[in-house]
## 1
Amino acid sequence: MREHHTPVMLAESMDLLIVDRSGKYFDATLGFAGHSGEILNRLNPDGLLIASEVDKDAFEYCQNKFSGELRLNLYNFNYSLIDVMAKIESIEFFDGILADLGVSSFQLDEPSAGFTFRTDVPFDLRMDKTKKVTAADVVNKFAEEDLAKIFYKYGEEKNSRKIARSIINTRIERKIETTGDLVSIIEKLVPQHYLRKTLSRVFQSLRIYVNDELENLKVFLENSVKVLKKGGRLVVITYHSLEDRIVKDFYKNESIINLSPKEDPLGMIKKEARLKIITKKPITPSEDEVKNNYRSRSAKLRVAERI
Ligand SMILES: C[S@@+](CC[C@H](N)C(=O)[O-])C[C@H]1O[C@@H](n2cnc3c(N)ncnc32)[C@H](O)[C@@H]1O
């Protein structure tokens, strides 16, 4: 099988994550186990790794790959349920938690995964295929303002209204069923040199919406702190500014004890800092890594420690 995914900032993330080689770790985004494989390489025989993955293909691939590995338990769960997985495993606290957000290269490149705009495939964009709403449902059924909002809010797309309008006009005549159907609508609206960027933003926005990615991330961060041991690390790799802002603000908010007068006008709320920020500025991939793996170019790694 060809390479499914090249793990991003592997050494950097591992060095910051693993504080105890006999500890218990959680990989929120198993993917094709680039990071999980390396965690296992570094763990002692008495270490343990729990990993979650919503995509069934990736999950089953890893189940097969690691069938004899006793230090690994896999869940085909959403990572926002980290606290539930900890309970099932009778784990009170993890020594470290890693999340490498977004989608894998396999999901982006493999036509049957339904994520790419480079081939004409049914317009899906669900990572978890048991979820009800597909990207096709959204573009065929949502109102114009709602579509424009999704493109703007989750894709930061300036032509959001124009694109939403054109979708509405097209669907009066025919349903939008494939990625190619949407590409051909957008193609007519933007200049050729701008097309790829626009498509990336529109597809990203629909993917974030269909998978409820930002909400899942917020719940995951909140639940992670509850199951992270004091001194343990929360290591998150993001790929776009919307995710990065959520992680950055969460770390900041959890490391501050003094609330602003606006948040607490009477000075009555007692707040305890739960995190210490380890990476004042996010770590980014080296030039060499970006040269060898172009998809790493937008990655940002942020680390906080439970206190
Ligand atoms: C960038 S890839 C991870 C790659 C992995 N670190 C590796 O090296 O192979 C992100 C993975 O997270 C999965 N994912 C995204 N959102 C998820 C969620 N809410 N819960 C669990 N897995 C999720 C995706 O399906 C994808 O396989």
## 2
Amino acid sequence: MEIDLKKVDYVLMKNRRDRRALIPILQDIQEEYNWLPEEVFGIISREIGIPVMDIYGVATFYRTFSLKPRGKHIVTACVGTACHVRGGQRIVETLSSELRIEPGETTEDMKFSLDTVNCLGCCAIGPIVVIDGEYYGGMTSQKTLALLKRIEMGEK
Ligand code: FES
């Protein structure tokens, strides 16, 4: 996969090459690429003077950062107890079979990544599915698939 490293320079400039801004830098880079490509660690290290291993440590500590390529759309289904008893796991199984990926994976066309989470703190409206940061309550497999179709067609 070809990485356009100019975006890294832009992010570093935006954060004034400030070593105290490591987390915002990683967040901005992830926003640009949808993941943290390995190539960027050496550049960040050189530019802000933090060892690569320390940057790697931060990137692996926070679950929000991904060291694997992610899809354009991130779909997260809650499988916490309250959502599970209302069909959360069925939604995950349907998504897995429809997208042909397991949770933690990304479709070959890089359109969707599928994740699961154990409770998002809004159990009363479960089952919850989060797509690109937007929460959808009272979901079913059919509603989730319909939503993905609309996203795919650019209608959402
Ligand atoms: S179990 Fe899904 S939001 Fe709490």
